[in-house]
């Protein structure tokens, strides 16, 4: 049976333990020896306690300073910035709210881009420039891939558009909406960084025209269209026409004024303080940071946009326009920054973007954006998170590598709805193919061998919609032999991305976490972000042997 003894530190030790035996006082210890020994033992205990305290303190300080760096990767339009917005909404809602009003301008630009896409499509003889050939959407990189959906090999029928009555009818929209081009040019100029915008081309705006004054204000020419078509609505506030731009499109014109950026996509350098520049006025509410009063400013773009709203609305609902878009296989509903179904709300004078509006706004990233936060209610209080959002277009990817050195986790976004689309920067490359290649490069990277990787198979909402609309995966991926329903297609992509990781990762121990996401959906994304946060934290702590 083991006996026990009490040490000076109060711990009980078994005397069968050799250390305990060695610590036992000599059997014939004198009183003086005993006092000396106890003094020594007490001193040793004090030193030991001090070391324990220092270690605890160092541990606490280390934890406090611990930073977890997460890199968002994926091709352009995969949803990286949208994911970052979701992190902001969850962790720094006050900052998100204070920036809300600045997004109004990006949303206007997105709306105007949709209008431009439609007008481009309905221009008289717009097919002429294409020589009436088969679909060649992918031949012109300036044709934004996310909007133009891949061809199915049939030449579009332009019979209806060649009808002269319908052409005149469609032309009237172009004239009625021409004031919007000046607004678009002005907003793009304000938002874009001229040094940074590689897409930039000369702004080309027609000068004053000899068109009748009514047309100069974008008012419809009632006599121009055949009676079979409903007349365009009268301007809602004719007295505001003065504030409208004077850019006009001459009748019969075959081109629109160029967008100041060739891709028509607003881009902003991440270092530029565009949100502040567009914040306008002083915040009114401490909670929302929302401001009021811009509608009193006659120069605010809302006046022109609001004035043109009924025409935009009619354009979007027009049977002939829809037919033209259908012939050209343009599905604006599936494109980024689509607001045409909510024109009245978006163009209202006192419009303030909702969370969903901000999440759906499209602003291409150049450079790198950093977002930091600490978790307030967590066992791991004091851990600082830094999320890095990068540009995903090909010419932006060189900026990723410097972050590989000390990143702790990667969230890779692959928009699997894009199986029928091509890259805007390279119209010969299918977007899912590009995602798979990029994924392979990331998972095979040796520098990232110990980094936690989370994969978001994103834009699942659009994937569902696309498959429901009858778009067939087999048409674009000939090897696919499964059914064309959502579950089968999702599983196919799940397996494909998973297999690449398994095959190419330099770290066979690494666990891969795959999530089915639609990152514009706040509720589901919030849950996913919280799960991912815990996975990353635990993985990282395990790596650094903190637990
Ligand atoms: N319907 C739908 N739209 C999405 C989803 N994720 C992102 N989007 C939209 O797609 C567009 C592009 O998303 P971004 O987050 O800007 O893409 P990005 O990866 O940051 O693109 P770059 O900055 O060019 O690298 C935005 O208009 C988003 O609102 C999604 O899951 N579903
Ligand atoms: Mg981005």
TrEMBL record:
One of its GO terms (biological process) is adenylate cyclase-modulating G protein-coupled receptor signaling pathway. It holds the Pfam family G-alpha. It comes from the Eukaryota. Residues 228-237 have a biased composition (Pro residues). Residues 31-51 have a biased composition (Basic and acidic residues). InterPro entries: Gprotein_alpha_su, GproteinA_insert, P-loop_NTPase. GO terms for molecular function: G protein-coupled receptor binding; G-protein beta/gamma-subunit complex binding; GTP binding; GTPase activity; metal ion binding. Keywords: GTP-binding, Magnesium, Metal-binding, Nucleotide-binding, Transducer. Residues 1-51, 197-240 are annotated as: Disordered. This is G-alpha-domain-containing protein. PROSITE patterns: G_ALPHA. One of its GO terms (cellular component) is heterotrimeric G-protein complex. Coiled coil: none annotated. Mg(2+) binds at residue 365. GTP binds at residues 359-365, 458-461.
